[in-house]
Design a protein that fits this description.
Length: 439
């Protein structure tokens, strides 16, 4: 079939032509927007899930819903080497512009507060640097020792793009928690004047520094008690709830958590058939089953295989043979772009740990039994997690000796621990990739 008309989109964060299986989250957020705009109490939202399940796509869809509701919106992607002030200031700047407030003086006042917040150089104990790890790394928010002067000069050179003077005495104390409460209060008040709200969308939220997470939770708590129309929508890996809970115990009640998982058979089929129908093509029922067998319903895999199958199929009906013919090409592309690129980020010691995890997951899974149905499955589902002791057993080492490799892999976002003594891949089917692709 014509590759130019190929409707499938296996891009990072790229919205597929049919956002299947997410109606529940979209409807719940519409309710949240309406309740907050009417002054009703509502929690902020946190989306969690593995890589490739469509968290970023859904985050963007929720932002689009807020824009349609005439809210002010801004988005940022958290990074482990960047404090919160700059990216959050840019996001709030955009949100204020989207509000279209009719009083220029009031808008200028709030923009001045945002500018003051962004340019505030952090001092000792201010908490705007991520646990002290990132101060001085090209940031306007602080430095280490003698680097403080250099940080100040960086602040002077950097512009937030706000063409009003910074306000003095508001959101500029240097304490990120105090400043964030004042900042969101002013922005929320501006939105309340318009009878709408402000929504801030944070991708990769688990990468925020510990002090920034604490400040964000405290500010969201204060804003919700004040009844101001400000909502935070975060997305991150499965251990994000644990990160938030470790920061503030009340975060369990502060956010509405939504686990974004793989699609069921029906939703995966809709994701394939609806775009094909728009191009005058169809999928045979057995082809849809074959696709589910190889993708397990993970949205990124559905799009990647769908694109490869379309390009090899004669059509207009796509058959199971087309899926089998295209599978090697799709797997090769995933091996390089989805799995391989992540594996290349690991050091030799970390790779050894990853491979031991894969072996441990395989040894303890139901597919390790030759008599089980899972043993002959084309694409087995990995265990949710494996004991760190099992990984150590595979390597013949003590668990304590493997802590540096494990901790480094967690910082790189390749593995996560949802509970003590357990470890899991952040990427679905990473274990299968490692078992079938030796070094």
């Amino acid at each position: 079939m014509d590759p130019i008309r190929n409707p499938y989109a296996p891009g990072a964060g790229q919205r597929p032509p049919e956002l299947a299986g997410r109606d529940e989250q979209l409807h719940a957020f519409d309710v949240t927007l309406e309740r907050v705009a009417r002054g009703r109490p509502e929690r902020s939202v946190v989306l969690t899930g593995l890589r490739g399940v469509g968290k970023t796509v859904l985050l963007n869809a929720l932002r689009s819903a807020a824009v349609r509701a005439h809210w002010g919106t801004g988005k940022l992607e958290a990074r482990p080497d960047q404090p919160l002030r700059r990216p959050l200031s840019a996001a709030l700047h955009m949100a204020v512009r989207e509000l279209g407030h009719p009083q220029p003086d009031e808008v200028a006042q709030v923009l001045g507060v945002i500018k003051a917040f962004a340019q505030r150089e952090s001092g000792p104990g201010s908490g705007s640097a991520a646990g002290g790890r990132v101060a001085g790394r090209g940031s306007s928010t602080g430095g280490r020792g003698s680097a403080a002067g250099g940080a100040g000069r960086l602040r002077d050179r950097w512009s937030v793009g706000i063409d009003v003077p910074a306000v003095t005495g508001r959101a500029d104390s240097g304490d990120i928690e105090i400043d964030l409460v004042e900042l969101l209060s002013d922005v929320g008040g501006l939105a309340a004047d318009r009878g709408v709200g402000v929504a801030i969308f944070i991708d990769e939220m688990q990468d925020l520094g510990a002090d920034d997470v604490s400040a964000l939770c405290a500010a969201a708590h204060e804003i919700s008690q004040s009844g101001l129309p400000v909502v935070i929508v975060g997305a991150g890996l499965p251990h994000l709830p644990a990160v938030l809970s470790a920061s503030k115990s009340y975060s369990e009640r502060l956010f509405r958590y939504s686990r974004i998982d793989r699609l069921d058979v029906e939703a995966a089929s809709v994701a394939l058939t609806a775009p094909a129908a728009e191009e005058g093509a169809s999928w045979a029922p057995e082809a849809l089953w074959e696709m589910y067998a190889v993708t397990a319903g993970y949205p990124y895999f559905v799009q990647a295989y769908g694109k490869a199958v379309w390009d090899v199929a004669v059509g207009p009906e796509i058959s199971a043979d087309d899926v089998r013919m295209a599978a090697p090409e799709a797997e090769a592309e995933l091996a390089v772009g989805f799995f391989g690129s992540r594996y290349e980020r690991a050091t030799p010691a970390e790779r050894e740990y990853l491979r031991a995890m894969a072996e441990a997951a395989y040894a303890e899974g139901p597919w390790s039994d030759p008599g089980s149905a899972a043993y002959s499955s084309k694409l087995s589902i990995e265990l949710d997690s494996v004991p760190t002791s099992a990984v150590a057993s595979v390597l013949g080492k003590k668990p304590q000796s493997l802590s540096p490799a494990r901790d480094s892999l967690m910082k790189k976002g390749l593995v996560y621990s949802s509970e003590r003594g357990q470890i899991a891949f952040t990427v679905p089917h990473f274990g299968r990739y490692l078992r079938t692709h030796p070094d």
